[in-house]
């Protein structure tokens, strides 16, 4: 799957109302049990990455890292975001192949 494929799925996911964006909204969706998976961009700040990682771990939600940066997400969704939650298992499965599972102690996320 290429970059355009991931951004295309994210765009469709957003238009169908199955994508939650922004740190606070994503944390709430994890705590409420709505999030199937959380996606973070490769250029997300270390503190933000740590914060969302802790919430995902506590709530049992898998966090994935994409090689896309916030600018790429902004191009696809119309606004730059670094944290997104997918609420539909079908969309999450379509993207899983191109996403890396994030390790809790992963400090270095590199953009391509």
Automatic annotation (TrEMBL):
Gene3D superfamilies: 3.30.1330.30. This is Ribosomal L7Ae/L30e/S12e/Gadd45 family protein. Residues 11-92 form the Ribosomal protein eL8/eL30/eS12/Gadd45 domain. InterPro entries: Ribosomal_eL30-like_sf, Ribosomal_eL8/eL30/eS12/Gad45. It comes from Candidatus Faeciplasma pullistercoris.
């Amino acid at each position: 799957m290429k970059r355009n494929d991931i951004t295309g799925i994210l765009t469709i996911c957003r238009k169908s109302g199955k994508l939650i964006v922004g740190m606070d909204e994503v944390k709430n969706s994890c705590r409420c049990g709505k999030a199937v998976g959380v996606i973070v961009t490769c250029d997300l700040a270390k503190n933000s990455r740590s914060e969302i990682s802790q919430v995902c771990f506590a709530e049992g939600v898998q966090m994935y890292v994409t090689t896309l940066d916030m600018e790429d997400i902004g191009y696809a969704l119309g606004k730059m975001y670094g944290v997104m939650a997918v609420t539909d298992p079908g969309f999450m499965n379509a993207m899983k192949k191109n996403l890396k599972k994030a390790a809790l102690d992963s400090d270095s996320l590199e953009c391509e």
